[in-house]
Amino acid sequence: MELTLQLKRLGKKKVKQVPFTLQETPKNLEDLLIGCVKNQVEAFNKKRTEVNVIGFLSPAEIEEKAQSGKVEFGELANKDLANLQKAIDNVFLAFKDGLFVVFINDDEITDLKAPLELTSESVIAFIRMTFLVGTYW
């Protein structure tokens, strides 16, 4: 299922739009969160295991990185892989603790087990409710 996620931080005007693909249509918020976490853990671990053959940046890559505010080669000193089960446990704990809220089509979803009716036009927004940590997830 193709979705578009909106990531927002309190105190910031910028809303980051992220195209997102899930293997199957989530039936409830719990399935949606698990699908998002699985997708991000796979991407994180893939980035850690890839070999960077090209040791320089093209002008297009420099421009793209400059737009995000940080130009770097992308070398990673930490090659540790993320643990999927720990990441899933963390997202549920963060949701229960109120560190982020989820809106689907402008309706806040507070129950992990409540059924969802998602389409490819659904707008899913994750809003981080804390000012204490780094950038988007």
Which helices and strands appear, and what pairs or packs with what?
Blueprint: E1 2-9, E2 15-21, H1 29-49, H2 59-68, H3 84-96, E3 100-104, E4 107-109, E5 123-128
Parallel strand pairs: 1-5
Antiparallel strand pairs: 1-2, 3-4, 3-5
Helix pairs in contact: 1-3
Overview features:
alpha+beta, 3 helices
Tell me what you see in this structure.
The protein has 3 helices and 5 strands. The protein is 32% helix and 21% strand. A hairpin with a 2-residue loop joins strand 3 and strand 4. With 137 residues, the protein is an alpha+beta fold.
What's the helix-strand series? EEHHHEEE
Could you say which overall geometry the principal axes of the C-alpha atoms support?
globular
**C-alpha termini separation:** 21 Å
**Physical arrangement of strands within the biggest beta sheet:** 2-1-5-3-4
How would you name the oligomeric state of the polypeptide chains in this document?
Answer: single chain
**Mind summarizing the main beta sheet?**
5 strands, mixed
Regions with little confidence, pLDDT below 50 for 5+ residues: none
Number of helices: 3
Strand content bin: 15-25%
**What structural class do helix, strand and pairing data support?**
alpha+beta
Mean of the pLDDT scores?
Answer: 83
Residue share in helices? Answer: 25-40%
Say how many strands there are. 5
Rg (CA only): 17 Å
